[in-house]
Amino acid sequence: MKENKRTILFLVLGSFFIANAIIAEFIGVKIFSLEKTLGLDQVNWMIFGNSLSFNMTVGVILWPIVFIMTDIINEYFGQSGVKLFSYIAAGLVAYAFIAIYLGIGLKPADFWIEKQTATGTINMQSAYSQIFGQGMWIIVGSLVAFLFGQVIDVWVFHYVKKKTGEKNLWLRATGSTLVSQLIDSFVVLFIAFYIGAGWDMKLVLGISLVNYIYKFTVALLLTPVLYGVHSIIDSYLGKELAESMMREAHEG
Question: Where are the beta strands (DSSP E) in 145-216?
Answer without folding.
Answer: none
